[in-house]
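DM between two lab members

TW: hey, do you still have the G protein-activated inward rectifier potassium channel 1 entry open?
JB: yeah, one sec
JB: this one, 321 aa:
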Amino acid sequence: RRERQRFVDKNGRCNVQHGNLGGESSRYLSDFFTTLVDLKWRWNLLIFLLTYTVAWLVMASMWWGIAYLRGDLQQAHGDTYSPCVANVYNFPSAFLFFVETEATIGYGHRYITERCPEGIVLFLFQSLLGSVVDAFLIGCMFIKMSQPKKRAETLMFSRAAVISQRDSKLCLMFRVGNLRNSHMVSAQIRCKLIKVRQTPEGEFLPLDQCELDVGFGTGADQLFLVSPLTICHEINSESPFFCLSQRSLRSEQFEIVVILEGIVETTGMTCQARTSYTEDEVLWGHRFLPVMSLEDGFFRVDYSQFHATFEVPTPPYSVKE
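TW: and the structure you got?
JB:
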């Protein structure tokens, strides 16, 4: 069967695009900081460079303008003459003075004299503006670099889900794993079944979301994710798969979205990893191969068998049947 359009890709990216926003697009500007953080890295770096370049040129031009209006650029500098900024003769020297002041380098060759009130006011304005720009842009870059999205790359999901019996009950199962030694604190897993549904009133729901119970009542959805775990959804009378059989699985069309959330131990930030399984990726009558083995003093995880399954005897009938 050809691959159909997914609601959520295997890597967790949601295939949803927002269009025809009209006047609502102004909401992005009202939350400009979040909009800037959500941009791609190339746009963030471009805005970062342009903001500093424009700010530097504008402020250097203002220092040059003060020197020009006071006549510091044309008048010869004698012993009795007191310029606004010492040793500023042209625009490059004004630019260098601004950079030295902004970066608090202070070489000592260029400095503001006490007989320049407009220069003192501009210096205070430059200090305030520089602090605001630094806090905004550096804070944005720091938040973007510390986002836990890359942490989700080391959280693994099995390529396929399986349906087989466990404890004499028919169950839908998939496997999750953590590749890092650092733990996911308060890890919790949720599952959503997305499929087309029509209500008794005739309303058509193209992406109806239904919750799959993976142990909410028993606490099995709270994971201690130090080794690969097999998440189990018991198919019973309350399950959306109550009428699902091996034969009807071939004609069904659905998508199971898996959401794993937890707190990154090293940073304390909340991380979310997602994946999905379509009906083609649900294997009836299969079970996952074991990946844990006991070595000398520790347990070893063999991730080469993480996605491997094998067939087991499973009735082809639905739970209802």
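TW: got it. Residues 285 and 299 are 28 Å apart (CA to CA). The first helix runs from residue 26 to 30.
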